[in-house]
Write a structure and sequence with these properties.
The protein is elongated and about 90 Å long. Helix 1 runs antiparallel to helix 3 and helix 1 packs parallel to helix 4. The protein contains ten helices and 24 strands. The protein has 379 residues and is an alpha+beta fold.
Amino acid sequence: MKKLFYFGILGLLLFEAANLYFILPVPGSQEMNSIDLAYFLHTWRWVFRLAFVAMIATGFRKAFQGSKILPSLCVLISLGVVYLTNFNISADTMFLQSGNLQMRPAVENKVDKSRLVIGVEYQGQAKAYPIQYLGYHHQVLDTISGKPLMVTYCNVCRTGRVFEPVIHGKQESFRLVGMDHFNAMFEDKTTKSWWRQATGEAVAGKLKGQVLPEFSSSQMTLSQWLSIYPNSLIMQADQYFQVEYDHLSDYEAGRHEGKLTRRDSLSWQDKSWVVGVSIGKESKAYDWNALEKARIIYDVLDNRPFAVILADDNNSFAVLELPDQNQKLQLKQDTLMLGQNRYNLLGGSLDPAIPGLKKLNAYQEYWHSWLTFHPSTQK
């Protein structure tokens, strides 16, 4: 019976550690294909816990008949580990959601206009969300033109994605549950399925294989965004999280010193920046260093010609489809020229009589992230 007590203590400690190990960025855990095991442990966590607690309770009396110091210490340690793993270092307790989302027009905006934002425009309404804030919260829930909006960001992958949080026609809520292959994962409230932030795909649970609808979004400086959408609303800082925001103040510029969130200045290293583009079944990554030199890179994927464009601020970028692969753009102070026609950075025509260029989904992220989720990518 005494052995059963200690076996229960050891089992509980190992289980709580394993339950978090596979979904936190600790050495070795993120390189394994362990999502199914992690989901199994998480789904059946209360069965495991009750089994180990039953062992502890069965052997409790015998364990305390001799010296009470060791069993008491074991109980205290196990209670401390349970508290830490469930209420202190779990993902949704380390990265809290803002309960005070404030969206303000440009005249009331207090966000520095040099800051990077994830911008969304839909049916005439535009909104911008600073990466400095998104990087801490990981998700911001909002609406745009009457539709629910889930703006997400994973600073370990440098991936910004915007989804419509709707499953089977019903608006869903999500919580940050951890990460897999260094990418944030969300759990939906209804089915408890796990969803990958970089793709919007459910990777474990009842809805495995389903994908959330994605909104087209842009990453650029707030100044550049407002030059295109002057009536945009801008997310403001929640003062309750100012310390967390300040910790990420140098992240977007690539100056953060954290091992997981730094920038490799050399090309094609794990933490090098790339622009990723997927068209049809083809994907390709474009080196950010090369883009800074060329300003415009031309290419064709799935028989569709396009241009990857970097603005003069060295931060704002877009990928625009071209009518013909022989046509070339000129970039003059962030105005694009195609023949005599003029366009803004996102392809909007500056002449109402001329149609704009189609903007393609493109993302700036770390090379290791793009390669992981686009294993057949070209470069």
